From TrEMBL:
Native organism: Lyophyllum shimeji (Hon-shimeji)
Classification via SUPFAM superfamilies: Phosphoglucomutase, C-terminal domain, Phosphoglucomutase, first 3 domains
Comment on bound cofactor: Binds 1 Mg(2+) ion per subunit.
CDD domains: PGM3
Reaction equation(s) it catalyzes: N-acetyl-alpha-D-glucosamine 1-phosphate = N-acetyl-D-glucosamine 6-phosphate
Cofactor(s), by name: Mg(2+)
The enzyme's E.C. designation: 5.4.2.3
The protein, known as: Phosphoacetylglucosamine mutase
Domain Phosphoacetylglucosamine mutase AMG1: 206-290, 305-442
Function in brief: Catalyzes the conversion of GlcNAc-6-P into GlcNAc-1-P during the synthesis of uridine diphosphate/UDP-GlcNAc, which is a biosynthetic precursor of chitin and also supplies the amino sugars for N-linked oligosaccharides of glycoproteins.
Compositional bias annotation for Polar residues: 1-14
Keywords: Isomerase, Magnesium, Metal-binding, Phosphoprotein
Amino acid sequence: MSQLPIESIRSLSDTHPKPPHIRFQYGTAGFRTLGSTLDSVLFRVGVIAGLRSKKFDGQTIGVMVTASHNPEQDNGVKIVDPRGEMLEAAWEAHATTLSNAPTTNDFLEALDALVRTTKIDLSKPARVVYARDTRPSGVALVSALEDGLSAIGAEGRNAGVTTTPVLHYLVKAINTKDTPESYGEDSEDGYFQKLGSAFQSLVSGRQPLEPLLVDCANGVGALAALSLSGCLGGSLPLILENTAIQSPGALNNACGADYVKTMQRLPPSLADRLKPGQRACSLDGDADRLIYYYLDERGIFRLLDGDKIAALVAAFIVDLVKSAGLENEVKVGVVQTAYANGASTKYLSGRLPVKCVATGVKHLHHAAEHFNVGVYFEANGHGTVLFSPATQAKLAAHQPSTPAQSTALNHLMNLTRLINQTVGDALSDMLLVEAVLAHRSYTGVEWDSLYVDLPNRLVKVVVQDRNAFRTENAERRLVSPPALQAKIDELVRRYDGGRSFVRPSGTEDVVRVYAEAVVRSQADELAFRVAGLVYDVAGGDPSKRPKEFL
Ligand code: NG1
Ligand code: ZN
């Protein structure tokens, strides 16, 4: 058995010391915090990714440097497993431990322990593909990552500046290259060509689509959307907005999917650009979230969020499966979280199986794998559709008995190429939505009218210790602090159509309160009153209690 290259790790690790007094955590979205504090984390992630690759016999591991929808000064990093999926949970804990080792010596000891406990054969090769978004801090962080890769002797492939979903795609494409499961050419261009050709086949013969306005959040999505639009053969005119990737401070600032969903309003920069009835969508800073919207004839903003996307897409796939003559063999299901609008859950459960899981894409992804076709979307616009390997084989082998069945089958096969099977991709999802709208001859108005959203409100509460909040039943109920859930229940009962739940955030040091009700003012009031209960139980200084918490 080979040994860890102690000297090479030691000398390079000393140039990337861990800042004292900071505790890092590999959370739902990887490591994510102020970009200026992450140098040692990136170095160590390089070493960890190398070991993870050795663990998989030299299969390629991915590393993405991004902080998604967070403000520009933040940055982060996540590790992607060989099939293009998120890092396995046990290794999230290893990554946390290694990132917090105070000194180089402690880091080396922790590495040694990891190699022994997880039985890594150090003689195996290590391969890592990595990319970053457009954040200015990304350049130096990638160079720290490269030091980590070189310290462990991993072969690195720099995929440059690209989106999170492209990086996930690359990992899967590289690891399946020249195999029967080949996922496509292992380049960004190869991916966009694949999406573009599937999209063009899906919409051929349909009415040409009206131009779509795309808010690129002043991030990497601007570059990606431009490349993608070159692969669409004019089938979907895109008007790209908020593409100022060089302007300091512009990233995600008053624009992007998170802004639109959270504020439930149009990015101010689009106010003069969007005409009533025109479709628009917003990407987030690493282009894995997508939110649609339009202005109605009175100029009022109408949101088409992840729940509306799930409803549109799931119903379409169910119809195609039926038209292809496969309804008894291919079961479509939907996965949501507690943040899904109650009206969407009602709409969907009347049509197909719906499962609710804890927040965080990995939970949705894993639950979706249990369906033949699993549609999952978070309300915030992150999601995709998974076709199980057995279902893909079934589609390939199915002999249609009528021309109509044959057409529907072809559409389904094209959907498997159009939809990213590794992780949610705003651009792939955007093409998916556009393809469905083209097939249904829907404008935003008809899509919007599938169901009417219940008014809702999401509030953050700063508490002394968010770990004091523990939940059950897919995070819909609190088990601690004791007695708080009973008080929430008591309050919720007083509101028509009221629903509210409280959970600790996995990405910020806050507790989130969600509430919905039949009337907007009631949803707001319920959210603020529940927030008040939370603050009183766990917030600390009563004089600092926010006054809106009634
Ligand atoms: P937290 O901070 O745990 O609520 C947020 C989003 C999740 C998910 C993660 C990862 C909400 C309410 N929560 O998680 O859905 O997207 O970030 O980015 O939108
Ligand atoms: Zn994102």
